[in-house]
Amino acid sequence: MSRRTWSETPTAQMLPDGRRLHLQHGPIDLVLEAFGEPEEVLKAYAQVQAVFPAILTGLTEELPRLRAASGPPPAGPVAKTMWAATRPFAPEFITPMAAVAGSVADYVLSILQSGRTLTRAYVNNGGDIALFVRDGSFRIGICDDPAIGLSGGTVEIGPNDGVGGLATSGWRGRSHSLGIADAVTVLARSAAEADAAATLIANKVDLPLSPKITRTPACELSPDSDLEDRPVTTNVAELTPGETDAALQCGVDAAQHHLATGRILAAYIALSGERRVVFPQLHITTNEMREAACA
After folding, report:
1. What is the pLDDT of residue 285?
2. Across residues 9-35, what is the average pLDDT?
3. Rounded to two decimals, what is the model's pTM?
4. Per the structure, how many domains does the chain have?
5. Are 102 and 128 in contact (CB under 8 A)?
């Protein structure tokens, strides 16, 4: 879960642009938008608002299981998605909580679409985004540094790309990380799968023995953390180009493995102003590519 504080009361309101709906309850902070006939869009929004207050309650009831790396499948719809998205990565350490944001986004998107005729839709849960594209495309900025919102490129997603979600993880983000990546963005068939993979790839971007990395047991920062006493990154001193390259290569190796097993469709890995991209088929454009095209 996020390191922020939050309100316990669910809220829903249209944003000033009159197109996007903002839903918030505890750590769940969603911005969503549907495209299609106006009546269909209004019905889709009403469907989501009707089920939204129950999402956090259901997750809270199953937190002990969701914070554990093993155990029986959970019962709730979002919890089941979290479990299913993380299970394929075993025996590597991962709990269902690694996919919580993406799973919530996937579930809300499924409610948004249920019985409706939409052309496109997205649900953005703090940067972890579930997508539906029947017509047209989405152009989405890829984050280089979540702390300051720096974008390092864009990806264009169309109906034939097979992308149902993307997610970003890293030590500078909302949740704790075992690695030192500023940001790892993964595209996958669902936001839940992208969330889980981004977490694990970000953990692999690392220099395990480097004195330049400051780490603290997760339980000292968040007593109820699913990471327990595992050391999470709290600071990264300036790295040499060689150190940056070595850490990034660890992330690339992990991303290529998950690509080969079909768990992800692409990955974008950023550290210390450098980036690596694993994208065999998708239309990803980094800032460097744009600069080269303009030169």
Report:
1. 60
2. 96
3. 0.91
4. 1
5. yes
